[in-house]
Specification:
The chain is an all-alpha fold. The protein is about 75% helix and about 0% strand. α5 (about 75-100) packs across α9 and α6 (about 110-130) packs antiparallel against α11 (about 240-260).
Length: about 260
């Protein structure tokens, strides 16, 4: 893989991992659209390490505070939030390990295009219906469990981990900024865990160091900027723009698939 391709993959991962538009869909479709060789697990590890660095760096102080409160003051708002995040992580982590070998089943471009559009509709309806009267500290155990379970669907390209969790959160009445932050905090162990889980495959393959490092660095920098952008954007804006993007990109994928077949 060339360094230019590695940087492109890093940019795409950094943007799509945190915006509700499905990183898995984009990373699956890029080689199909451009006729590139599938990067495989090596670059999956690189890209996820990059975005893990981004989310850990951005929320480092939050995590220090939450972890400390979780073990020393579990009944405080921060302490409860920490354990809610731990509980919500379990379904996504377990399903990721159990269903990882079935990922290829959902890699059909036509299916991905349709799911991009369908989940765009779900995102819009949930965002529009949400009352925005619940803050981050008020998410609670039941909502955390439901949001955590919803992550099981994120393994399907086109669904999007941030997309499904934000949809469920908005439908439950959590305000946009709070569900975005909850989603990002929840993604921290999932993204890092995914990278570490697939890192076991690296010992059996040759790694081209320069593209690998370029992908990690690019995904980290762009991911950090994407998190900051979305948190600021949702202070005054809705999720409609991401629904529109899903429609446009999903329609493009469907048309391209039909033309090629």
């Amino acid at each position: 893989m060339s360094i230019i391709q590695a940087i492109i993959y890093g940019i795409v991962q950094g943007v799509t991992e945190f915006l509700p538009i499905s990183s898995t869909a984009h990373l699956t479709l890029i080689p199909w659209i451009f006729g590139w060789q599938n990067p495989g697990n090596v670059f999956d590890v690189a890209l996820h390490f990059g975005t893990a660095i981004a989310v850990i760096a951005f929320f480092f102080r939050d995590w220090v505070r939450l972890i400390a409160a979780g073990f020393t003051k579990p009944k405080t708002e921060d302490g409860r939030l920490f354990w809610f995040l731990v509980i919500a992580t379990v379904p996504g982590a377990a399903s990721g390990v159990a269903l990882d070998k079935y990922m290829g089943t959902f890699s059909n471009p036509l299916l991905i295009g349709v799911l991009l559009i369908m989940m765009g509709i779900v995102l819009y309806l949930c965002d529009k219906a949400g009352k925005s009267d619940i803050r981050l500290e008020e998410v609670g155990l039941k909502r955390s469990v439901v949001i955590g379970i919803s992550q099981v669907l994120a393994i399907i390209p086109g669904v999007s981990r941030s997309g499904i969790t934000m949809s469920i959160g908005r439908a439950a009445g959590i305000d946009r900024g709070s569900i975005a932050k909850f989603t990002f905090l929840l993604s921290t162990p999932i993204i890092l865990g995914d990278a570490l889980y697939h890192a076991k495959d690296l010992s059996s393959v040759h790694i081209d160091a320069l593209p690998f490092v370029a992908a990690v660095a690019t995904a980290a920098i762009v991911g950090f900027l994407s998190i900051r952008f979305l948190l600021n954007y949702l202070k005054t804006k809705s999720l409609l723009v991401f629904t529109v993007y899903r429609f446009i990109f999903g329609a493009f994928v469907i048309v391209l698939y039909l033309v090629r077949t």
